[in-house]
Amino acid sequence: MSSRTAISRNRAATEGDVTSQTVQPTSKVTASQGPRKRRGVNREGLEAGRRSTRTILWILLAVAMVLYGFPFLYLLFTSFKTPIDTIAVPPTILPTEWTLENYANALGRSGVLASFINSVQTAIISTLLSLVLAIPAAYGITRYKTPSGRVFIMAALVTRMVPPVAIGIPLASMMSSVGLADTPIALSIAHTTISLPLSIWLMSSFFEAVPRDLEEAATVDGCSRLGALWRVVIPVVSGGIAVTAIFAFLASWNEFLFALLMTAIRSQTTPVVIANFQTQFGLDWGSMTALAAVYSIPVILLTLLLQRKIVAGMTLGAVKG
Amino acid sequence: MRISDRRFALYLMTPAALFLAVFVAYPLFRLIADSFFKISPIAGGPRDFVGFQNYVTAFASEAFMGAGWRTLAYTLVVVTLEFALGLGMALLFTTLGRSSQVWRTVFLYPLMIAPIVAGLLWKFLMIDNFGLIGTLLHQAGILSNPNQIGWLSDPNIVLFSVAIPDIWLTTSFMCLVLFAGLQNIPGDLIEAARLDGAKAPALLFQIILPLLRPVIAVALVVRGIDAARAFDTILIQTNGGPQSASETMSLLIYRTMIRFGDPGLASAMGTIYLLAMLAVAFFAVATIWRPGKDN
Questions:
Q1: Residue A247 · residue A202 · CB < 8 Å
Q2: Contact B16 A137 (CB under 8 A)
Q3: Tens digit of each residue's pLDDT (9 = 90 or more) over A232-284
Q4: Nearest residue of B to residue A42 by CA position?
Q5: Is the ipTM of this complex over 0.90?
Q6: pTM
Q7: Chain B window 82-141: which residues touch A at a Cβ cutoff of 8 Å?
Q8: Is B3 an interface residue toward A (CB < 8 Å)?
Q9: Does A20 touch chain B (CB under 8 A)?
Q10: Which of B228, B86, B241 is nearest to B170 (CA)?
Q11: Are residues B212 and B91 in contact, defined by beta-carbon separation less than 8 angstroms?
């Protein structure tokens, strides 16, 4: 099998997964060609059939899930310990006394709440900027398939390989020379250099799935090309736009190196504050774990809620050929 | 007057292209230009053209060559372990089928966690004295004392220890991509092989892995690029120490720039690092991946 068919098949299946409730038959067709011979109960392809095998596999899965989930649970448990308990030798898994003291300490510290506001602000500006730039660009690339489009998507790919540490310092000095030093705007522009290539990539694959007849019908009806994009195509890919927005938001929310290089006090985001706990206040593990929990839980919940879309976007982002 | 489609497409791409030119290409140009100067870290200080002197200094310095090898070793460790664990989990989810769907979702959660938080979390688990891992291994009778393994303080193993949060964070990604690939292997093919009496290892190495090759290639390239740029997790765990034993390229460049105040040398190192990454990535892309060929 050539790699080309494998990748496009893979994409088809991924897209099937996005809407696996509605387009179930499609993904089944992709998964097997020709009539399926079934042996045993519920068995297709690699799925294990024998009861004893399945029991062993479930036990394996349980062990893996416990090992994988434990580190974050331990962080949560620790955040509810008393500050002294936090660094007890030997450490205990569960708190001996459950308290919110670490949370009060962490959130009460000056600059922490401001850093949350900065994180939210930076992530929102960066997400909007990515979308505004990526949507027309991706549409231009996928709809018209010009040589310049091909060059452009390759160039966007190359920017993905640039190490942030290489452009961080020149970017910071550019920003301060135009008077934007230490502002959320400057940081969100820096974050957009990371999320824009990814957004163009993701949006291209969403546009590719839109049937061309749709715009053709619209232009026949007297719509301009821009009008067709705005009124006909954009509403169709709104789900894809949402996925792209989540990824751009997460990229900015979790970013650390640019934030470290480009912010001082005014526009510091929470990841930098979390890292600073370590040096500025000695080893205040209790507050650090509490702040880390507060910063992570909203995005974990958000993404678990939207998991179907996230999974699709993540696989597309990686597998898009 | 109606503009041509070709021109219209160009207009649509222009804003994004301009953005990348101004905020990625121009800083890169500045980086390369700076690499030929001896620059005083003080603002407005002297700036003397020194030709390739910074490059000579970089290649002659033990720190730079060491960081290069460590970055390579780190990337190989991270990508290999992630691939093995990710493939294991993807096979487990596939063999369990639809009933494991909830757990597949839960398995994704580390992907949402900031690398800085992951680094912190694992530092807390591995740190000397009150780290939980040493204590648990001691209680299980594997270690004679909880501090027997200095995860983050023993220069011989620290490069491996600092890789753990990175592996923990992104094994989910590897699993997700490989799982998607596994769903596309025709069930009949597996059935036929089974009827021919193929055992599990033969099935894995002779049928599944060859069919997954394109997906594996993509996953390895994407993750390899990311691992080679690792910064946050290492900085927060060890800051490159002890004795530079976990100092990878990103950290060395950062420290050369900020701590040692030598922007010229740091730029030369950054340029070499970038060129090396591009060379490896282009080689990988050209031989196994080829993005955009559907266009």
A1: yes
A2: yes
A3: 888 888 888 888 898 899 999 999 999 999 988 889 999 999 988 876 556 78
A4: B97
A5: no
A6: 0.84
A7: 89, 91-97, 100, 103, 105-117, 120-122, 124-125, 129-132, 135, 138-139
A8: no
A9: no
A10: B86
A11: no
